[in-house]
Amino acid sequence: MNNVTIVGSGNWGSVAAKLIASNTINLRSFNDEVRMWVYEETLPSGEKLSDVINQTNENVKYLPGVKLGKNVVADPDLMNAVKNANLLVFVTPHQFMEGVCKRLVGKIRKDAEGISLVKGMEVKREGPSLISTLISNQLGINCSVLMGANIADEIAKEEFSEATVGYRRDKAAAERWVQLFNTPYFSVTSVQDVEGVEMCGTLKNIVAVAAGLIDGLKMGNNTKAAIMRIGLKEMLAFSKLLFPSVKDSTLFESCGVADLITTCLGGRNRKVAEAFALNGGKRSFDELEEQMLKGQKLQGVLTAKEVHEVMVTRGWVDMFPLFKAVYEISSGFLPPTAIVEFNNNIPHHIKNKL
Amino acid sequence: MNNVTIVGSGNWGSVAAKLIASNTINLRSFNDEVRMWVYEETLPSGEKLSDVINQTNENVKYLPGVKLGKNVVADPDLMNAVKNANLLVFVTPHQFMEGVCKRLVGKIRKDAEGISLVKGMEVKREGPSLISTLISNQLGINCSVLMGANIADEIAKEEFSEATVGYRRDKAAAERWVQLFNTPYFSVTSVQDVEGVEMCGTLKNIVAVAAGLIDGLKMGNNTKAAIMRIGLKEMLAFSKLLFPSVKDSTLFESCGVADLITTCLGGRNRKVAEAFALNGGKRSFDELEEQMLKGQKLQGVLTAKEVHEVMVTRGWVDMFPLFKAVYEISSGFLPPTAIVEFNNNIPHHIKNKL
After folding, report:
1. Are both A185 and A235 inside the same structural domain?
2. What value of ipTM does the predicted structure carry?
3. Residue B297 belongs to domain with CATH number
4. Which positions of A are catalytic?
5. pTM for the complete prediction?
6. Distance CA A235, CA A202 (A)
7. Cα–Cα dist A230/A41, whole Å
8. Interface of B with A in 200-259 (CB under 8 A)
């Protein structure tokens, strides 16, 4: 029998609990109970968040109004939450992942398997640090990822959407994750390309900044579609340079083109970039970010900077004109209009390769 | 020296004339003059359309307010227009192509090359009839295609966009077309996949109907992105079944993902499908079409029907659940909401192959 624990209970973690709980109750090879580790908080009412979740079956703070399923058990004790689980779903904010992993070393089952739902890994100068690799290395377990066009609130409302499981080698493990997440309104497929799936989840945010600039410049759908397409090709080319095993076909999965579309139509990266262009670049991203996002950091601008560092170090800058332009515009070196001018100086033989 | 004639002078044909004329004037291997065949009309003022174009340098009827270039010569005589040309750009409405070709048999230069900008070929039961094949067969010339995210009015305003030349074998001929169309704001690349490029241009309209239904059902971006992604995969799979030479990579070109995005964000197929869903399917596509499009036919609904016939004949229906759903919804057999339910009855092993 498989035991599932969700490490995290934010907005996306709570939706994951709802999806999984609707499946464990019907699938014979899974225990019904889904344990969800809750980073304990005291609510304004004085009650503990985990107690309220267990009483009401609802994460009143991060997913109010949605029943998680009676078989979801909130547990504020991380060690207790994971001790019986052989299936660990990681869905904490990105910056907490390293600390959580450290606490879990030696505390989990030897036969455990992990899956990461954490988007926004860091791209450092020496290369990107994949969250799935961090988990694998620190805990000595196999770790897959689940990414896709997944706006949590839409899935909570049971609107049709999709996701992609990326796995390294173990197809059977991947199929178990698919079984655990898949519902009639949440269609999950698996691909053997953990790096491709995870890179898509990060790099799309750079393209979303570019798309937002186009919106702010009041350009048409032709131009926006062109920029998204160029972005998709740069995402693929950059991922393949870093990880030669990345497959072209991964881009046709939910984690690729679909997540890119969602992110470029909505999403905060697009929105702040639109405001930046509307202001003619006169107000910095930092300033707009603070005003519009209230403390949240803009992933796309950060990733553009990190990717640019990697490109400079490796001599790849001229191969990625769109990524370069997003970096130079968001850093204030070029005006927002440069987003449609980056193309002019590229020799045709390079452009054809993009 | 190369001589260019544009066979057609509508909205897109006039933009093509503008693009080409800006290049022939600068390129040594091309004569400056670009001849444009005009299907003669008498304007309300009593003047002939071709005379007005030649006097004002503007297609006052189909692209008012945009100068075409002084080296564009409107010619109402088809035979005279083509007689010196070795480069023929076909851009008439789809339904006139067969008649135009018949008139041109034996009247063009033996060394002529063609390129078709005509979207919306017919998919008949015995397979799709590609416009480029029609031209090739009837005139005995090599024929490439140019497709992409090309809303004519945006290109006329010189907003950045892209296009794809699809060619059969002759790379040098394709590169000449690229040279002829490419400008700083209109970025053209070539791929050796004439069928892939042309199929994308047709099948995208089915997906646009699906996207419009999602909009009319007031569903979120997750769902729309998922539907567009599934549509893209069905476009690829269907094209490859009909033409095994079609390349996956063609979908990453402007004619593929970018044209799909433009068409699903704007465009009349999306718009009428949205109205259809908003009315709960109670007013037929025919009725909405008549009211909203004033005589223009809705390509997506027609193509869905034709593609469905091909699928039935060849036993492919269950492999294309989205195409099937669009056909069944637009024919009134299923309600608009079926567009997000088509997925439920597909065995997982088939879904994974899509």
Report:
1. no
2. 0.90
3. 1.10.1040.10
4. 204
5. 0.90
6. 9
7. 44
8. 219-226, 228-230, 232-233, 236, 248-249, 251-254, 256-259
